[in-house]
Amino acid sequence: MRKENDILETTLSIAENGYAEAYRFLLDAYEKNPENHGAQTLYFLACLAGGANMPEKALGWMRKAIIDNGWWYRPEVLEDDDLGLLKNDSEYISLKSVSDHRYAEAVSKAKERFSWEKKTADNLFLAVHGNTQNGQTARNDWKPLFGEKDRWQIETIQSAEPDGYGTYRWSYDMVSYLPVAKAMEKIQNEGYEKIICGGFSAGCDMLLRTVLFTPACCDMLVLQSPWIPILQDYAEDCVHAVQQKSIALRIFCGSNDNCLPMAERLYAAANKKGLNVQFEIQKNSRHQFPEEMYTLEDLL
Question: CB atoms < 10 A from the CB of 117, how many?
Fold first, then answer.
């Protein structure tokens, strides 16, 4: 069964040619397996309906998400232009107020979560989620990499910054990456034969910031669909830090992913410096993991 993120990426692709068609596609996917779709799907349905000039349907999806399901969203996403038809609607204003209150409450209680408790295998893989995801998403995304290999322990670090109901995000600043740094530093001297850190999207930026700005180290960084704005100001510094710490670099990015220019830039800079770097462009793929996951042997 396809993951929610993959269905949403397909929806975005269809939406480039028309919101109405994308709405029908996502609605069909949702109705077939509603239990496999969360707050992001209902938000997409609302935005697509709004963009397709169906304000009542858009309002209905927001009502279902916030009132029926008890979910909430980051305040700014409810100000999206696709929901512009609802901005003066009294019910929508009320729904947004409920959501905003829940968000503020979640922010006040949020803490980073590092799943690691003790060493249970010879090698460690630390997975860092992307925005609108969480630690469990990261574990599920990376688990196929290892198959039945029991010499590897998979752990996750989850952001302390809520994104929406059940999901979290990383900000591109000098604070948000610190939970990743603390997690990497905590397991540094636990006696693992090999430590690999894998990031998806914004998680890649957090890993690069950690390697650049802290003493934390690992044997390899695996960057999938890397959204890495840190390159704007620190491209050479990032590559130098990776080189100084003798970290191998593996970069994967879809051919239809907006992250591709950043991935190419990082690879070019690392390759120019002679780093242990490999780069694969995944054909016909957007901002997602590949349908057929690469293997651990492909990385090592």
Answer: 7
How far, rounded to the nearest angstrom, does the alpha carbon of residue 39 sit from its chain's CA centroid? 15
| 284: three-class secondary structure by DSSP | coil
Contact 99, 72 (CB under 8 A): yes
Kindly state the average pLDDT of the residues 258-283: 98
2 — pLDDT class (breaks 50, 70, 90): confident
- DSSP H helices, the chain, are 4-15, 19-32, 39-51, 55-63, 90-109, 135-142, 178-186, 202-213, 231-244, 260-272, 296-299
Task: Give the Cβ contact number of residue 82 at 10 Å.
Answer: 18
Residue type at 264 in one-letter notation:
E
Q: What global pTM score does this model have? A: 0.96
What SS3 state is found at 156? strand
